[in-house]
Amino acid sequence: MAWCYLIHFDIPPRGVQQHYIGYTTNIAQRWGDHQAGHGSDLTKLAARQGIRMTLARVWPNGSRELEVELKSRHGAKRMCPVCSICAVSEALMLGSD
Ligand SMILES: [Zn+2]
Q1: Are strands 3-9 and 19-24 parallel, antiparallel or unpaired?
Q2: Which of 24, 69, 83, 92 lies at a C-alpha separation of 20 to 30 Å from 2?
Q3: Are 19 and 54 in contact (CB under 8 A)?
Q4: Where are the chain's structural domains?
Q5: How far is the centre of ligand 1, averaged over its atoms, from the C-alpha of 1 (Å)?
Q6: How far is the CA of 33 from the centre of ligand 1 (A)?
Q7: Mind listing the pLDDT tens digit for each residue in 35-46?
Q8: What is the pTM of this model?
């Protein structure tokens, strides 16, 4: 099986990009590689900086084509469950007074 996946960074490693979208045929090994600092350049940087990464979403039956499509949407934040939860929390706090 192949997967596309979205990683959420608590702090953007380069100051701007808070998400990473990737493709793999072994999600467990690839996620371990990212966490250990052996993944992509961006996740290597995050690991070196001690930035927490969350495997926020996976797409089973992924493909290189889907990876390219997901990246071309330029809307990782809208696809990210972690960011959605943060938005709900902020809305609730804003509405509490
Ligand atoms: Zn996010």
Answers
A1: antiparallel
A2: 83
A3: no
A4: 3-94
A5: 25
A6: 20
A7: 999 999 999 999
A8: 0.90
